[in-house]
Amino acid sequence: MNLRILTPPHWSVARSLLRWSRRLKVQLAGPYQPVREVILIGNGVPDNIVAMLLAHKLNGRRAVGLAKPPGALSAALRELIFQSLIRKVLLLFDQEDRSLNDAWRSLESELRRAKMEYRILSDEERLRVYGCRHGSRQLRVIAVMNGLEAPYRKHTIEDHLLKICEKLRIYEAPLPHSAESPDPKELWSRLKEHHERVYRYILQASMEELKDAFHHHLKGAQASAGGCQQLQINGSAQSPATKSRGAFRVRLTDYSSHTRDSSTPSAA
Question: Is residue 102 predicted with pLDDT exceeding 50?
Answer without folding.
Answer: yes
